[in-house]
Each structure stands twice: as C-alpha cells, then as structure tokens.
Design a protein that fits this description.
12 strands; 12 helices; homodimer; DNA-binding; Rossmann fold; 434 Repressor (Amino-terminal Domain)
Amino acid sequence: MVTLKDIAVKAGVSKATVSNVLNGNLTKVSPCKAKEIQDLIAEYGYVPNQTARSLSNKSSRIISLIVYADCDRNVLADPYISLFAGELLRQLQKRGYFGMIRATNDYADILQNLNAWNVQGVIFFGTLDKDIREIQDRAGIPFVFTDSYSSVRRINNVGIDDYRGGMIAAEHLAERGHRRLALFAPGVETGSDLDKQRIAGFAFALSKYGVALPDSHVMLAEPRRADVMARSLLDLPGVTGVFVTADIAAIELMQALKRLGVGVPGDMSVVGFDDIPMARLVTPGLTTIRQDITQKARIAVEILERRLDAPSCPNESAILDVALVSRESVGYV
Amino acid sequence: MVTLKDIAVKAGVSKATVSNVLNGNLTKVSPCKAKEIQDLIAEYGYVPNQTARSLSNKSSRIISLIVYADCDRNVLADPYISLFAGELLRQLQKRGYFGMIRATNDYADILQNLNAWNVQGVIFFGTLDKDIREIQDRAGIPFVFTDSYSSVRRINNVGIDDYRGGMIAAEHLAERGHRRLALFAPGVETGSDLDKQRIAGFAFALSKYGVALPDSHVMLAEPRRADVMARSLLDLPGVTGVFVTADIAAIELMQALKRLGVGVPGDMSVVGFDDIPMARLVTPGLTTIRQDITQKARIAVEILERRLDAPSCPNESAILDVALVSRESVGYV
DNA sequence: CTGTTAGCGCATTCAT
DNA sequence: ATGAATGCGCTAACAG
C-alpha cells in the first residue's frame, strides 16, 4: 500500500507539499511540482487513507443514515425506506460522501456510532423525540430530519404536506359518493406524527362534506396484521371506503380483502399513501397520494451539504407537495 | 469528546491499561483496576474512536457491499437487491461490523474505496470478471461473491441452484400441458451468468418433455421494457407460457400483458424467479421459483466472518436450494 | 500487572 | 514555494 509519504519521497518533496496538491491548495505549490506530483499519484494509484485523514482533521466524509427502528429488523425490506435510502446513498456518493445506514432505536447506540466514526452529518428517518434532540446537541454536527413534526426547537427538516395528503384522499373518496369511511394508520403505533397529520387532514376534509369519521372507524393497528384489519373493517357497518396511510399496508389490506371475498373497488374502495412503485403493479391499481421520494432525498442531501459547508447556517425546512394518483382502487357509490 | 487518554488520567493509569480493558485483555490487568476503569468508561460515555483504531491496527470493521451497477442508479430500488442488502446490513451490524454499500462498475473506484477505508472484507453483488479477481488479489482481504459462476480460480461464493430453478420452472409448465414456451431473461444484458444457467436448466427440462425452446423464443431484452417484451411475446405463434428469470420483470410483464388485453393465466402463463415479497401481492399471484434471500445473506456473512477470523481459511462455496411456489399465474392448457 | 515508547497516515502550524 | 515538526486517538511492542 502506497502512502502519501511514499510519493513524497519519489517526488523528492516533503509530505506537506503532497498534502497540499491533494487538497487543492495549489496556491502554495509551484505549478510544475504540482503537475509532477499529480502524475506520480496517478502512476502509483495512490489513494489517501480516509481513516488517517479523518483522525487528523476530523473530516471523515461519513454521513449516518439512521433509521429509527428495531435494530433487528431488515429495514430495507420496506419499499419506502429502501427507495429513500437508496436515493440518499446515490446522492451522497455522487458528492463524495460515504453514507452509512444504521437501524436502531437505542440512543446510546446512535451517539456511539457518531463518535466512533467522526460522523459529519446525519439524516434521520422516522419518529423524533426529545432524546434525539439531545443527541443532536451533544454531537454538534448537522442533522436533517425527515417527516418531523416536532417543534420544540428549530431543526432542519424535509417533509411533505401530510395534512393536505389526507385532505386529498378524503375529497377523492367523498366526490365519488362515499359517505361512510374508515381509516387505517399502521404507523401510529410507532408514535408517528405524520400519520396523525394525515388523519387530521382526512377528517377535516370529510367534515366539509358533512361526513364524520367516528373514532371507532380509525384503526391504529400494527402493520403486518392485514387480516385482522380486514375483518375489523368489515365489522364496521356500511363502510364503503378506507384510507390507509401507507401503500404497503394498503396493498396488504387489499390482498386480505380479496381472500375474504370482498371486491375492490366493487365492495370496498381503498386509497393509499406514498405511491411506491408497487402501487401501479397490483390489481386493481392502487389509487394513492403520491410523494416524490427521490426529490425528498435530493433535498435532504442538499440541506445537509449546505450545513456541512457552513456549519452556522440557519435551520431550514422543506415541505414538498403531494398529489392524487387515481388508479382503479376507488369506485363510485 | 472524551478520549482514551482522558479516562486514563482520571483512572490514574496509563493509556495502555485502558486499551487493554477495552479490548478484553483482562489477563493483563488487575480485576479491581479493570472494574474501576469500566465504570469510568460508562460514567463518561467514552466510546473508542474507530478511525484511530483503524489507523493503528488496520482493523476498521468496515465491510464493503459492492453492487456492480451503474453508479448513477438507485440500486436499492430493486426489491431483490434491497432485501438482500438490508439483511446483510442487519447481520453485519449484529456482529459489530459496519456495512458500507457502494454502487459502482468502475474498478478503480472499488480499489480506491477499499484502500481509503482499510476495508476488511467485501461482499460482491452481481457479475464478475477477471478484473474483479485482480482487485481481490491486490486488496488482500476476503471477498465473498454472490451468484458467481466464474471458475477461473477458487473463490468464496454463495449462490443458488439456478440450473435446477430453470428446470423446475420448465417442469411445472410442461406438467400443466404447455408445449410452446418462451423465456425472458432481463439480466443477460449485464452479462449475468446466472440467467444463462436458468435458461439452460429450463431448456434441458423442456427437452425431456420433447419440447424445444427455439432461439427466437429466448428474449434477452433489457429490464424495464416490459411493453416491447409483451408485444414480442405475442408475436410468437402459439406460445402459452413464459418463464421470466426475475420476479420484478415478470410482474412488469404481467402488467403489460394486461394492458394489451391478454389474460394471465388464461391466455398466457407466467413463471418468475426469486419470490420477492411482491410476488404474492400481485394479481394473479405470481408462480415463481423461490430462493431464500435472507438465508443467503446470512451465509454470505458467515463465510466472510470465518475468513476475517482466519485469513488463510480455504475458499468455500454454498449453493442453496430453490423451490417452486405455485400461485395463480400458471394455467392448464 | 503496569507504564513507556513508538508509530499508523495525514493535515497543519510555523519556519525557511 | 517548500520543509520540519507536532499531534489526531489508539494499539502494540517492550520494559519494568
């Protein structure tokens, strides 16, 4: 393994000079020497050791992608997370950063990780509470939260208009004549504020049509329990439509409904949320509230990078829009 | 940020002693001192700096997960890859390693990455050629390949019985009376040997039923082109079934077929490969050849870890079995 | 059992 | 414009 020192001796210069050309401090080195050194670097395929660089100036270029979840789960099995994380990774790699994904719900583990690797920035998925803020402060590095509704203090956040998403779902259903509706929010069990927003928006829009959303019609079950969900849904008299706050759960629900002989959209209309790629591949195609996951990732990285370059940059927040994607899972009554 | 030195002075001992308790060299330190030091560590929330540790003894605990693909693609958008990578990450994290995902098809980039981070091991996804071997040799660290068919030299590999998978698909179709079949291998364009195996197995099993697979029935189109695929398929006279070597492509194909008014399995039977979670969620449920992605990931990590512990361990190879999962996409003729 | 010393590879003063 | 020296935080000999 060839080191900076090696190419320094080969070039007959000091390590400092090589270091300078490496870091683009071309003002401090004569053009001819610089050229010569760059050639040597290319010739020997020298690549600077990040761990050493990181030790020496605390610039690891590592960005931690923390998924707040049980650490023993395959978090990338969730289509939304994998799409989002994949795009984040791509954006980071393109900019010369190294993304490190970590699934955990243990604050000590997070802090440990950040310290261990001199992590320079964090993009946080999932719910947020005071503890994570504390970590943010202790860590002294930029954090970008996603889908955060906490307002304890100003933070960097990129999210979507969840409330409006809920409204759009309700309006779509209402306009097609549905008057007795239910709602399935699989994320609430994790304390998800975003589901609460979607629920609130949904209920509000419904009220404009004079339709109520009884508490008993709001189901906060756990994800994977599509079967019990479907049964509960059928127990609700006269319900013709359901809003599910995540596509993956909506799709599971449709599947469960089908097993029970309930037709979608014939007997039951379903509206999802996210517009994951799978939504257009199932039958019937899932009508859903689309969010632009790719753009969200891009913006998250942009916000982070701005703070990496200028640490004292004021916090900023980006709220992306959502839109209805009408496919076949909603019928008319 | 508290360092090893800090807690050394607080404990009134030398750095070496602290280092020893940290690394479990308890034989070299008195129990009482050890206890005392561990308490200090806990009290101050001291966490060893990996970059320093890595510099000093070249043990970074970083494992590189290299996805051989265009570096400008969101590789985690592929359900198979994200499921596999997610499980790999989980297994690595559980064992105290740090997985670093990197999408690239540039050998220089790979080598650079390995050197930069003192990467200790690599799990490689995707096609393999001599260049990557060269990297393996140059890097001097264990590599585990997945789904590799190269036999230039002994390597560590974890794969599945692709040939048999192809056979099973053919048998299933043949037993249901299909005699004119086609095949769609979306991965071949990337030079995938695995698709070649699946094709060979499929053709062989078919031959036992006295049915041929004309070259014109073997379509090596690019992925995402489901529409043109569907049309080509319909241009083949009398074909009643198709084997698609990846579920995601099979599902796209079914979708395209539906748009063209072709019923599955009524007018066309489809068999996929992988059994990704989506396969059971589409309609009709996709009949497919199942591979255990989770187990594959687990074994890959086990093989790697064995070599991390004993670098001179002989190469080993694991071939997992596959099985038919019969759902609704194959009919009788 | 414990402390001292010497690097790992690099960036960063401060000299020249 | 360039070089010598120092230190980042830790581990690994070796001494005591």
